[in-house]
Amino acid sequence: MQTPHIFIKKLITLVIALTPASLLAAAPVITTTSQTDGGPLTITGSGFGSFDGEIVSWDDFESHPVGSKVNGLKPIVGHTWSAIYDYNGQGIVVTKTPTEDDTGNTMKVDWTIDPETIRAFGWAGKGPYNQLYITYRRLMTGNFVASTANHKQFYLYGNNSQMPQLMPVIPGGQDRWGVYNNVSTGAISASNPNPNNINTLGWTWGNTNGKLQRWEIFTKLNTPYTEKNGVVQVWLDGKLGIDNKAYQIRHVNGEFTDFRLGHIAQGFYTTAKAWFDDLYIATTPARVEMCDSKVYAECTVKHIQYVKPEDWTPTSIKVNLRKINAFKLSSGVAYLYVINSLGEVSNAYPSPEPLTPTPE
Hints:
This protein has helices spanning about 5-20, 20-25, 205-210; strands at about 30-35, 40-45, 55-60, 75-80, 80-85, 90-95, 105-110, 120-125, 130-140, 150, 155-160, 160-170, 180, 215-220, 230-235, 240-245, 255-260, 265, 275-280, 285-290, 300-305, 315-320, 335-340, 350. The strands form 4 sheets. Strands 3, 4, 6, 7, 9, 14, 15, 16 and 19 form a 9-stranded antiparallel β-sheet that branches. Strands 5, 8, 10, 11, 12, 13, 17 and 18 form an 8-stranded antiparallel β-sheet that branches. It has a 4-stranded antiparallel β-sheet with strand order 21-20-23-24, with no helix packed on it. Mean pLDDT is about 90; it is low at about 5-25 and about 355-360. It is built from 3 helices and 24 strands. A hairpin with a 3-residue loop joins strand 11 (about 155-160) and strand 12 (about 160-170). The chain is mainly beta. The N and C termini lie far apart (about 50 Å).
């Protein structure tokens, strides 16, 4: 007969052996940062893992002259920009951000020029991709009326007769943001209580219109395509308002190949305008963020820090800090976070700029 402590030891060993490696891996921890004059910041720690993916698109539009049409523009990283339907007019051009707190460039999508309900830019025929992390800053204006209009921020199309599809949307006749796969009927039932993935934090057209906000979307296709195990998560200014990890995104055996941002202003295209900035798309959620809070979930000002995949290792990450001035308007303290490829968030570590506080 085994003694109790031997039995417990064997039981623990068995549990560890049966636990997936992803659950055993430690969450990322930042221990220190260092920087030489004029060089990148090196973040040192543990649990960063590998970048585990590629950056599909990254552009802050600063390198493009104001007035540049989107077609043929080269982003900092990724696929050359193009417009849907090969549009090459003044309805999608680089302009200045129309806010006082940001004097940089942005991409303006204007449905009122050469009026068209569908107007968007991005890329097509790439990948295919089975998971994507997409983020951008967005400001939208227009006389949207929920009873007569609907709006889609972007569209993901697939390689199986344009399926699967996915879009952040205010469905027709509603005023709250959700995410839709262009397959389900939208009807509420016991088996499908939230078919359009309507957000739980009350995001509506009214409280997002006319505001420059950070949107983040992570999606992972269901596998196999017949199962309900796909992931759709959406954050607005750092707050998670859509979190569905049992979604049947695709109903066919296909993956995403096209991305179009701006897209539909159905019913209000004669007044609709949108500005997009800091557009970043990757096949992994691994990234570095700068934030205004010690608690990641409480961040209200959050800016992604572009990292080259080759500069990311399990114990160190090199990054050139950006958007520092955004944090000088408050306490002057900003915090760095490392998010690994599993979506796990590190501790908060005070940024060396614009102040140099001692880590707590």
